[in-house]
Request: fold
Amino acid sequence: MAGKARKKSNFWKKMRFKYKLSFLNENTLEEVFSFRMSRLEAFLSIAFFTVLMITLTSIVIINTPIRNYLPGYLETEVRQSMVNNALRADSLTMAMESQMLYMNNLGSILRGDMEIDSVYALQKIDKEDIKSLEKSPETKKILDKYAEEEKYNLTVLSSNASTDIPENTMFFRPVKGIVSSHFDAAERHFGTDIAAAEKSSVLATLKGTVVYAGFDANTGYNIQLQHKNGMISIYKHNAVLLKKIGQEVNAGEVIALVGNTGTLSTGSHLHFELWYKGSPVDPEEFIAF
Reply:
């Protein structure tokens, strides 16, 4: 015990023993500057300087645009802004191409590069093509008859579809929230509306492949997953889509963020649909929201 205490005492003596660091003039060997510091003081100074540099670096990154270059730091609003800007740029490109085509055609007409006969021929061909696309009376009669029959066709609303789903199928709850509107096939409301906080995570209910991811004027940002055994899950009115067509996702994986997009949306919520072999089923029969 005495030996251990002696070793401990010697260790602290060494840590507290101060060393003198002097700076000498090379020509006169005169001491210009000196200071004393122990090993403990040197260690504490280095630790303090390291913590100070880390803190200052973090403050600079957080309060400057440099943070946008960190992987995964971009916020949802920034991502959505990027998507919207890309869509606007694509629309502007298409508008410019259309305008350039119009200006080139107008210039050809003004310069006389396009003969009147050729213009007349093109117009004649266009009129003939349009005429050939018009429905004949027989075709129109068949289509009207089919539309009238399908108006009262309820085969797609078969209630037996849900009974064919395997009992061991485990569904993930797509979002945490409150059911605001239930499944009602008679009103052609083929899904369940779940009111949830905006930008909440939307999860894949089953493992599958993304077969559609896009924007619709009525239902906003939509994403659809194809699952095995003929099942399809649909998620509508999202704020942002995080997956692309063709990507495979696992059950419970985040695929979108809850939003309020589309003209048919009246608040932040998720419209969730389940289809089995071409027929809609009530999601509340399989998932406790």
Notes: The first strand starts at residue 18 and ends at 24. The two ends are 66 Å apart (CA to CA).
